[in-house]
Design brief:
Shape: flat
Largest sheet: 2 strands, antiparallel
CATH class of the domain at 1-55: Mainly Alpha
Number of helices: 9
Strand content: 5-15%
Number of strands: 2
């Protein structure tokens, strides 16, 4: 259980979303909100999150958290919004639409959803983290996405 708590603390530190962190450690989506809240109230988890925050010497954790969510976050809720014709306003309020940059209803009907650029989020993560050098895994991922050869 300590391994799960530690992993949850790390995901929460980076994502700042208890539900999403709980899903990432294996909670079923329909139980994740309650399980995430319970884990956040756990004393050990709170101490682990505090340690992670104290180790963020540059104070860039929030920016990295947002960029990480943009780069790797799920879009399931946005897809649900696009295809569920009978979704209620209460259900919409519970959706995770963090990766959505714009929602429109075109004149011809339907729903248009635009997402933030994942590639740009990855590039910014590489820029913000001094441990990422040219040979880091993150840099290789960005290079692979853009089709650039090895350095």
């Amino acid at each position: 259980m300590v391994g799960t708590k530690k992993l949850f603390a790390r995901f929460f530190f980076h994502l700042r979303n208890a539900r999403e962190a709980a899903v990432r450690v294996g909670s079923p989506p329909d139980c994740a909100e309650a399980e995430g809240a319970a884990l956040l109230h756990d004393k050990w988890v709170g101490e682990e999150i505090k340690k992670l925050e104290e180790s963020d010497s540059q104070g860039t954790a929030y920016a990295k958290s947002g960029l990480t969510r943009l780069a790797f976050g799920a879009v399931n809720d946005a897809v649900r919004l696009a295809f569920d014709e009978e979704i209620t306003s209460e259900e919409i309020m519970k959706l995770d639409l963090y990766n959505v940059s714009e929602i429109k209803r075109p004149k011809g009907g339907g729903l248009e959803i635009k997402f933030f650029d994942r590639q740009r989020a990855l590039e910014k993560l590489v820029e913000l983290d001094p441990q990422f050098g040219e040979e880091s895994e993150a840099q290789r991922l960005v290079d692979a996405i853009y089709g650039r050869g090895g350095r």
